[in-house]
């Protein structure tokens, strides 16, 4: 009996690890899929804000993926998107109230309108349509955790770099005491665009170099572009 169940358990663990890790590296929502650009560029003027936004999105992703996977067979196909939005909005309201009650006031005010706007974040709605509505609860949880952690990682990288380049600090800790004049460009929206572009260029250069070493040409994965997303196929 143990011999027959062991391969199944190992396969399940392997599958869950694959679903989790893909969101961090292979299908990172920001650095690969280029989703959620609005909060990514708007709130990452420092690492603390980026981390706070990432954690809030992770909570909504985890809750909405779980619930949508549980009720996926009960939702009529024609009204699935409105139903998904109601579920997502419920968790966003929970996050907003929890942050208003327990999060530092400065963090809550900095994130501002971008917390309610998680309702229409394409990462959350996209995972609900593309994954949670088609897979089991445990796989949907693994997918949500992976995508959420990947989002946090991307926001931390961008927010940390912007904060350090702006005033020589990280997580509000001054790393370079002699830094006297802030580099204001990095703390503003144009700086976010420029820095994100540089990060994406480095990632693409790394992928191209890796492919050339194998004697291959680099082509972005075809299944990651907009043409393979079903979220716009809403039946009336």
Explain this structure:
This protein is mostly helical. The protein has one domain. Helix content is 65%, strand content 2%. The chain is built from 9 helices and 2 strands, in the order αααααααββαα. The chain has helices spanning 2-22, 37-42, 47-71, 80-102, 105-111, 122-132, 137-167, 184-187, 189-213, and strands at 169-170, 173-174. The termini are far apart.
Topology:
Elements: H1 2-22, H2 37-42, H3 47-71, H4 80-102, H5 105-111, H6 122-132, H7 137-167, E1 169-170, E2 173-174, H8 184-187, H9 189-213
Antiparallel strand pairs: 1-2
Helix pairs in contact: 1-7, 3-4, 3-6, 3-7, 4-6, 6-7
| Euclidean distance between termini CA atoms | 50 Å
Largest sheet: 2 strands, antiparallel
Please give the count of helices: 9
Mean pLDDT: 89
Topology order in helix (H) and strand (E) letters: HHHHHHHEEHH
Q: Estimate the strand proportion.
A: under 5%
Number of domains: 1
The count of DSSP E runs of length 2 or more, i.e. the number of strands, is 2
What are the salient characteristics of this protein?
236 residues, single chain, 9 helices, 2 strands, mainly alpha
In short:
This protein is 65% helix and 2% strand. The protein has 236 residues and is mainly α.
């Amino acid at each position: 009996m143990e011999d027959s169940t062991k391969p199944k358990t190992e396969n399940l663990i392997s599958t869950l690890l694959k679903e989790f890790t893909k969101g961090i590296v292979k299908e990172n929502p920001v650095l690969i899929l280029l989703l959620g650009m609005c909060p990514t560029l708007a709130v990452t003027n420092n690492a603390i804000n980026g981390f706070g936004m990432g954690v809030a999105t992770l909570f909504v992703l985890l809750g909405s993926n779980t619930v949508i996977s549980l009720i996926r067979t009960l939702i009529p196909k024609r009204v699935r998107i409105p139903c998904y939005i109601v579920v997502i909005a419920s968790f966003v309201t929970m996050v907003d109230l929890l942050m208003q009650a327990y999060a530092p006031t400065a963090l809550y005010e900095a994130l501002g309108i971008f917390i309610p706007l998680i309702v229409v974040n394409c990462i959350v709605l996209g995972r609900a349509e593309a994954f949670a509505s088609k897979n089991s609860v445990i796989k949907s949880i693994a997918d949500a955790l992976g995508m959420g952690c990947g989002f946090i990682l991307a926001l931390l990288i961008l927010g940390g770099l912007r904060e350090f380049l702006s005033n020589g600090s990280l997580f509000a800790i001054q790393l370079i005491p002699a830094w006297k004049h802030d580099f204001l460009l990095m703390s503003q929206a144009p700086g976010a665009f420029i820095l994100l572009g540089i990060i994406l260029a480095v990632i693409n250069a790394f992928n191209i170099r890796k492919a050339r070493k194998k004697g291959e040409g680099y082509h972005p994965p075809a299944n990651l572009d907009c043409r393979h997303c079903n979220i716009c196929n809403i039946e009336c």
